[in-house]
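During the first year of the project, the team set up a workflow for recording each protein of interest as an amino acid sequence followed immediately by a discrete structure-token representation. This format lets reviewers and collaborators read both layers of information side by side without switching files. As required by the reporting guidelines, we include two representative entries from the current panel. The first entry is reproduced here exactly as it appears in our internal archive.
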Amino acid sequence: MEGVGKTQICLKFIEELMNNSYNFSKILWIDATNAETLANGILIIADEPNAKLHDVEKSVEAVLEWLAQIQ
């Protein structure tokens, strides 16, 4: 999907978030080029300090469950 504006959409989304005082402490970028890079990107999140603080297991399922419960 080259040249369809994916990066521009993401940047616009972030700009809107910042301009509207949404309270996000972190934005996580994950390479979803293929299933392997997607899984690796999700696993990297388990190394984030807040994930470690909550003892998130380094598995795709555990990371996704943890992310789903964050408010």
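The second entry, processed by the same pipeline in the following quarter, appears below.
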Amino acid sequence: MHSSKIVPVSIFICIFINTSYTLAFSINRRNVFTASKGSTVKRYSSLLEDTDVTTSQEKISSKIAQYEQNDNTCKKVSKYDWSFIDKTYLITCPNADPGSMRLNKAKRILDSVELLDRVQVKEFQTDDEDRIRGCYTSHITVMKDALKYLRSLDSNPNQSPKGDDWFGSLVSMIGGNVPKTSLKTSSPSVDEENKTKCILVLEDNLEFSGNLESETLQAVSEYITNSDKDADMIHLSYIPYVPNLVVKQTENERIVSLTTGQSSALGTTAYVITEKAMEKIIQEDAKYGFRAPIPDVMAEQFPDSRYSAYPTPFLRAPKTKSLVNPQLDNLREILFQPAVVSQVQNILAVTGLSTNSLLFITVAVLLSTGGIGTMGVVDAVNQYISTGSYGGNIIFLLMNVAFTTFSLGILVQGAALAPKPPKEAEDTDATAEVIP
């Protein structure tokens, strides 16, 4: 064979191998496929189809140069960097989710923030004897599974967040050998080996707040993986209406600290938790088993080491029915609207007031406003009865009536929607002894 024919064939083989490697990388980075809708593969295919073995070397080089020049146009730069999370779990209960409506909605939300391809869905059956215990059990099970996975990373540090090796699989399919050094199999740096391992736990009742920014994730990453910060948990969603909650700003404007009483549940819709924190909770479970809701256990074990992203990227969905305490669903539809939650969280963070103080001030303002407005309305009515006319500004009077009705209406509705106290107050220790 003449050397003039050998050169094009060699170039063709090199292009094919390069295509396989790059395609493998593109599959592993799913967001590239999502952005280009397969344009990356099509462009590679067209390059191979249009390149005949007998094509001149100059034409091949021209096509390669053209591709490299326009390469950035078909690749989507990831907006959100979740790489600091070692594993992501999504908790769902299929028997309480007919048609998978909750799960599918959660998946759409996670896909919009580039998290879906990192998620492992964990399915549980509802504990109809004790839904609170069922919630506790699901989170404990996830933590146990996560600890096994994180410990496996010590022996196999190149394992991906979902345990999939797309690169090796694809190269094997075309008959090639996986190179010893690649993007997937490169040795971790010293910083990666020493970084704090953590997972993200999500529930299928989550809602997107619209507040997620790349800088927020960077702040969460720095805080949770920095051992000097001593952060055990960072909430990506929390309930701002619980008693004794104090939100304080930190040196990072996108991170706030959370402190509560032991029975103040911040919720478990979305939180990042470290390996060390999970070990502590699992040890507690091994000693006492189920004795309190999982948010209460977290408040007890981490009184000063819980933080939150500010603002929170997720929240508990206002219209998703609760599997634990459905008696509060009507109240949630009002209080858990994204705009309302964000405003309350902002007030708590800016003022530094506890929720108890904020509640007292809010009720006092509403009562004062309602009282003053009522007096104005009564005076207007008396004047009209006595004189047959009203000498004041009728527009101001109507505004006064509306504002008074609104203020008193909030108080009345809050009292009406407040959950009724349980019929019997059960002793926690006794419950812990009865339930295995």
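For the second entry, the following points were noted during internal review. The mean pLDDT is 75. The first helix runs from residue 3 to 28. Both points are flagged for discussion at the upcoming steering committee meeting.
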